[in-house]
Amino acid sequence: MGESFDLDYRLGERLGSGQFGTVYKCVSVSTSENFAVKIIDKFSGCFDRRFVYSEIKITLLAASKNQRSVQIHQVYEDITAVYLILDLCPGPDLFDRIASHGSFYENEAAVIITELVEAIAECHRRGIAHRDIKPENILFGSNGRLLLADFGCAALFEKGERSLKGKVGTAAYAAPEVLADQNYDEKVDVWSAGVVLYLLLGWTLPFNGETVVEIEAAVKKGDPICFPKEFFPDLSREAEDLIEQMLARDPAKRLSAEQVLRHPWITEMSKTWELFEFKNYWVNMAGFWEAIISAFARPAAGSPISAFYLSLKILKRSLKGMKCASSNYIAKSILDLKDLQSKFLLELQSQPLDRELNVNLKVVNDNLATLQHGWSSWISQRGKAY
Length: 386
Fold this sequence. Notes:
Blueprint: H1 5-8, E1 9-18, E2 21-28, E3 34-41, H2 49-63, E4 72-77, E5 81-86, H3 94-101, H4 106-125, E6 128-129, E7 138-140, E8 146-148, E9 155-156, H5 176-179, H6 188-202, H7 212-221, H8 237-246, H9 257-261, H10 264-297, H11 304-320, H12 327-350, H13 355-382
Antiparallel strand pairs: 1-2, 2-3, 3-5, 4-5, 6-9, 7-8
């Protein structure tokens, strides 16, 4: 434990607040590194030393050799407060991302929910139930990696037992057994993650109300989960199935975190996301080639160079318009471009070109060869037969 927060750190801007403390940016006096500090006021009505040091213990346990949880670096205490020095996550939390982005495509949501459930699963393997999974507690590190934060409501549990009790967390994300003040197990975190997934895909919550009391009543009422077309116009049946299993009212029928990670929607969407990323690579590279040919070649209409140029434009436009390019589409595009490339090379050999133009067109050709090699390697590395 450090001696004095005020001597070791300079307090910065306020970042946010919760039931048990306020978070600020702070800077180390000795290293000039940026951190976050959670200041827990001893004179607030919520202060309880046992809970504070339980949070510290659980956060340290969750973060040890775990890249999915916010780390505690130091702890200070004086007569007025306890200070927890934490990782600073400079970007917006998931709540802010959802607010500015709106609903997410399924492949985008799958990346976020996979990382979230991986973090939850790691906590559960360590015997920790977070009990307050919500977008505000889902942060992103400087490298974009998802981090689970705020273990103020967390508790240790015995595996295979419903040993947890207490009405904690946030009503809109809390499982019905929590709101009913019954004994429960770690699967309450899976319920909360299911609500987050529903929100990511539909930009709305499954249980709504004007007040906390109304929200709690909606959660406890037990109506089947519905997916209104106005919010979910193109939702796949696989996504619906996963949400329904994560929001199963009976904890015995609810998926565990490990089972969520093995659900077909998660495993298939991980493949789709790889294709989505590769599609973006295609768009960028096609744009690069198009710009070079446009600037240097100015090809005559009907020539192979012109055909190559137009194919790149069409490819880029069509890929940009797709949520995700299929592997078959990309593979066919490569075959088409390989044929055009052969004609393109013949055209270069048959007409005199100044040196500068020749060099730049060679760059285009080399990039096409690189893409073809990259696509083959990309498939080979994953061992997938597309």
